[in-house]
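> call design_seq(struct)
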């Protein structure tokens, strides 16, 4: 969205003006130069996406419009509820995704209604996961006692725990060791990587 507002999207018309060898025409309709205004509110397919949404946005009168898309988006962000802002941003992202699959993979133009549905669905999933994250932070689930298997060493004793894992992509193994006192405080620890060589001996 920052790129839209600051006119920094690698849009075809801008690339063409900079001398990049490509068609300046819109990937979606192939009939008009692809500018940010055209892609996000002037293209017939894009208008249908906005019309299919429940935002009451109608860019049908785009030709007469005196506002650029970046100005319109800025006003939405400044003056509307978070629900509306989420929908607008998600639809913009959906339009950009469809545009890229058309440009680079020559994919079929999907039904405009599916673009709106995907935007709506992605917001629901995002909000649902955000709720779960907030709940987990506010109400952390305590670890059950049965999951705690490590016990303190007796008084005046130390406990040594050793673990190893591997191999990693370089063929190395990791070895870690930690020593704790009777209060559970770490008094010594070490970690090292090493290469394991296997030797086989055959006895006849
Ligand atoms: Zn177009």
């Amino acid at each position: 969205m920052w790129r839209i507002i600051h006119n920094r999207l690698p849009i075809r018309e801008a690339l063409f003006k900079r001398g990049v060898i490509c068609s300046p025409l819109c990937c979606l309709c192939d009939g008009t130069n692809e500018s940010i205004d055209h892609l996000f509110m002037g293209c017939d397919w894009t208008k249908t996406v906005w019309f299919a949404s429940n935002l009451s946005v109608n860019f049908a009168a785009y030709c007469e419009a005196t506002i650029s898309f970046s100005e319109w988006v800025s006003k939405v962000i400044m003056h509307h509820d978070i629900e509306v802002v989420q929908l607008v941003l998600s639809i913009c992202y959906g339009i950009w995704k469809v545009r890229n699959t058309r440009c680079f993979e020559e994919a079929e133009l999907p039904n405009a209604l599916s673009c709106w549905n995907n935007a709506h669905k992605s917001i629901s999933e995002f909000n649902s996961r955000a709720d779960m994250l907030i709940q987990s932070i506010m109400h952390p689930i305590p670890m059950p006692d049965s999951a705690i298997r490590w016990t303190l060493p007796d008084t005046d004793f130390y406990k040594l725990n050793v673990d190893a894992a591997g191999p990693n992509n370089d063929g190395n193994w990791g070895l870690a060791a930690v020593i704790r006192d009777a209060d559970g405080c770490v008094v010594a620890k070490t970690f090292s990587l090493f290469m394991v060589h296997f030797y086989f001996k055959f006895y006849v």
